[in-house]
Amino acid sequence: MTRALPQVSLGSSRLVRFLTDWSLNATQVSHRQFTERLGQWIDFSDSITLSEAHARALQVDNEDVASFSAGITDEFLRARSRLVQASMRSFFPGAGPTRIRWPASGAPPDDAESALQPYLRFYQQQQAEVDSKVRGLHLRTREAVATLSARLARICAIDAALGDALAIHSRRYMTTVPTLLQSRLEFLFSDYQQSVADGAARDAAWKHSCEQFRREAQGLLLAEIEARLLPALGLIEALNEEINNED
Known about the structure:
By secondary structure, the protein is mainly alpha-helical. It contains eight helices and no strands. The N and C termini lie close together (11 Å). The model is unreliable at 7-12, 24-31 and 37-51 (pLDDT under 50).
């Protein structure tokens, strides 16, 4: 039986919605604008590689897709669940072992820079960890799916070529996410300062702000994980489509 997987489009991406809600990205990208930008990112040598991936005659080890699909899909879903759980556990160090820990709130700080730097470092460490794990999962998924049919092998070859062509741009855009998070935390810190100026107790106001930092950083990281998983999820959806076409 084909596993149900979330259907996610570029326009409905949780990461896009999250940043839009912060009023950090109000630009709507049309299909034409997207394809034009994509063409600018892929140079002549990349285009040749993609063309070769389309044209190459590919050998596969096994044409019986259905008998192998459940294991690949299940492993993808398990790996995704482990990744999300480990990332979310780091926001609550008491919830279990974790290498990266959410900073303790400590005493109320006097300035935004000293207040926010521990949280931004935490996010960047988490981002690097997630990037490594997602790239590994994507590679394992591609290698497994590519063995099942000639059509899937070609899709995986194109996926690999396209991934290489867009890797630099993808990393550059993902590195801007902590900058956007910093802008958001600075806004929340100014709210904290205003509440203290209006008479709120500093300790209580700071504790409330730290919990808000945690909620928003947690939501942003979840959205980023979802966005980073989209290429691997696309391979799983191609696999399930292959099975449905054979029914």
